[in-house]
Amino acid sequence: MAYARNTSVPANRSQIEISRIVGRYGGTHYGFQSAPDAFTVGFVARGRVVRFRVLMPDRKSKTGFESEERRLWRCLVLAIKAKLEIVSSGIETFDQAFLANIVADGRTIWEHIADGKSGLKLLAPAKEE
User: Per the structure, how many domains does the chain have?
Assistant: First the structure.
């Protein structure tokens, strides 16, 4: 079951919602970029630059590109709001909640780790059931 599978909320409304959520939790900057294959959302909060990059489906996809784009934006709204609320509630620190998406030296922490050059070894990939 895909979250927000039947959403009619336009992408630009989700973008506005993300900017408001980020601001409500103390974020000072917000921006987004679109490309044919992905969209990127970035913001600054708690002295950190945070970036999410969401890959888009093939424009020729049978699932419907525009509906999938709307759905992915709604998923990102949910994820960012949940992470910020977890931080606000003291369940995790900001760095714990956003670690993979914090930008350091122009790349996210995840990008630094995933390229294999950081010296950190990730767990073996989980087997799909």
Answer: 1
Structural contact between residues 70 and 11, judged by C-beta atoms closer than 8 angstroms: yes
DSSP states of 49-94: EEEEEEEPPPTT-TT-HHHHHHHHHHHHHHHHHHHHHHHHTTSS-H
Of 49 and 116, the structure prediction assigns the larger pLDDT to 49
Taking alpha carbons only, the member of 90, 77, 98, 94 closest to residue 26 is: 94
Distant-in-sequence, close-in-space partners of 104: CB < 8 Å, separation ≥ 6 = 112
pLDDT tens, residue by residue, 75-98: 999 999 999 999 999 999 999 999
Asked if the structure places residue 93 within a domain, the reply is: yes
Q: Is residue 2 part of a domain?
A: no
